[in-house]
Amino acid sequence: MKQSAYAWSRAYAKQARADLMAREALLWTDCPPCQHLHFLQMACEKLAKAHRCLGGSEPSSLMGGHGVAARVLPQIAKEMLRRAAFRSDLETAPSALVSMVRQLAREIDLLAPSVDDDGRRPDNCEYPWESADGSLHVPAEHNFGSLERLHQHRAGATFLKLVTVATAELADGAYETL
Amino acid sequence: MAHHKQPRANSLNQAGGPSPESGEKAPFGVSIQEAAERLARSHYKVDPGIQAVYRLDGPDPNDRRIKLLEVNEQTIPAGIVPVGFPPHPATGLHFQSVVIEVTPGEYERIRRRDLKLPDGWTIGDLYERPISSSS
């Protein structure tokens, strides 16, 4: 029996939630930051794919693709803002949230080795790379800057909350009976 | 860049509900057309990168999803990536929605048919930007 888009979406979200749990577990260990960032990148990717399933994409075709969190996560932010405005009985207000989510999601997309901005951003959290000056970089030894401490600054914490809440909504199957 | 098309005449789909392009009231009092306009308006207001939001029309009269094409100068080129959302009745959204976000360059490619929308989907009305939101 062919499963519904909702079922596939929920399945992707459940796996995204597992990635977020792994990230959280690694965050407080001595593991190099590339490891917890890898799980965050995978979680964002699967959350994006969960929404692509709902958008009509063939689920089995989504397994290999990378780099669309920057297309999907801002849409999630917009939906969250719409809901918040409705609940507060306010007109939707201008917000910096969408732009912030777009920027962070793009940085997280770039953590995947196959997403490198046409060679300009070979840094990634999985495989070693050689930079333009000929030096060799190892993800386990690389400094990923503020991404390593995403949870410690306000925008990063907001981003993580959005990803976590959106993942839980789909993973918990809140929509399957609608 | 604006591409205007008049809404189609009201019609019922095979399931007896209002078709996506009809202005007919749904059981919960808001037509899909009105819901789509509200959704487009809320997106204009919170996303400063949006240049234009168009309705997308599909060939299936039973397709009761809101479908939007958003032209956004802040997004990255990534092709056609339909992003779906379930309805959220608790906050007044009673329809599923699908948003396709594209760069201005990708929009031009769609118009030139170099870049294909999902099968049978076409660009419909432009939703006007709310006066209070920046361009």
Number of helices of chain A: 5
Beta-strand residue percentage of chain B = 15-25%
Question: Mean pLDDT of chain A, as a whole number?
Answer: 92
The assembly state of the depicted protein chains is heterodimer
SSE-based structural type of chain A: mainly alpha
CATH class of chain B: Alpha Beta
What is the CATH architecture assignment of chain B?
2-Layer Sandwich
Spans of chain A of at least 5 consecutive residues whose pLDDT stays below 50 are none
Coarse structural class of chain B: alpha+beta
Radius of gyration of chain B: 14 Å
E-strand count of chain A: 2
Order of helices and strands of chain A: HHHHEEH
The greatest interface here is: A-B, 40 and 35 residues
Radius of gyration of chain A: 17 Å
Major sheet size, sense and barrel closure of chain A? 2 strands, antiparallel
With strands numbered from the N-terminus, the spatial order across the biggest sheet of chain B is: 3-4-2-1-5
Q: What is the percent of helical residues of chain B?
A: 10-25%
Shape of chain A: globular
* Share of β-strand residues of chain A: under 5%
Helical content of chain A (DSSP H or I, runs of 4+): 40-55%
